[in-house]
Every structure is written in C-alpha cells, then in structure tokens.
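discrete fold record:
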Amino acid sequence: MHYHFGGVDGLLHQAYERATLTMIGDYTADLTSVRSFEELYRVGATMAEKARTDGSAAMLSAIIAAAHTDEAMARMLHDNMARWNEAVSTAIDRILTLRKLSGAIDVEALTASLTASTIGMMTLGSVPGQPLGDPIAAVRGLPPLLDRAMKLVPAPLARRIFGALG
C-alpha cells in the first residue's frame, strides 16, 4: 500500500478523488439537461439520497473534518469542490440565461453557496437518527417558488433588484 499510494492518506486521497470524478460523471448528463432550479434541486436530492445510502456522505463528513488539520486533505477537498462547482455553475448559468438574467446574479457566488448548503444538508441528513430531520426534503418547496418568482417578475425588474443588492 505504501508503495502504490504513499500510505493510508494517499489511498484515501485517491479513493476520494476517484469517487468524486465518478459521481460527477454519473450526474453530468442530469446537470447538463437542467433548465430550472426545481430540476437542479431534484438532481441534488437524488445525489444526496444515493450518498446517504452508499456511505459517501459519511465519507465526505470525515474528509471535511480531516481538512481542518490536514493541509493535503484540505487541498484535495478544495480541488474536488472546484470540480463540483464547475459542473453546478454551468447548470445555474443556463437557468439564469433561460430567464434572461445572465449577468444579473453572481453565478460563482450562488454556486458556492448552493454547493456548501447542499453538502451541509446532505452530510447532516446522513447522520443516523437525522438530528435535523431530512434537510434536503425540508427545502423541497424553495426551488419551485424561486422558479415561479423568476417567471412572474420581468427580467428588467429582476436585474434592477439584483443590481441594487450588489
């Protein structure tokens, strides 16, 4: 093991990277077809359920905890989160473009906040006994509400609102 992976940490790093790349590959088609926040939510909810059942949410929790004290683990987490953000960012940009809101909202900031909150909900939702219930299911009504608001509010007005917030 030491020869091939440089020790247990090397094995863990390689396993996490492979798992991340596989998961991104598994959801790329879904992410590229997303046309609304409700559809993006469904992709995330499906991924969270799979991560809960296959143990990858628990593994991610351990990696996040280890990243606090292990620089190599923190770099690996950063690199893999950048891969996720790239995949999700493309979907968010498409949704905003379809609503004529491209450039009105900081896509990278929105992506980072959605990724972080989804990871938090996914990892907490995978804890035995679910101390907060199922956080992913709890926010199920927000994406369709956002989609409806984006349809009802004219794009020029939405751009002014988001511009005033920035």
Observations:
- The two ends are 51 Å apart (CA to CA).
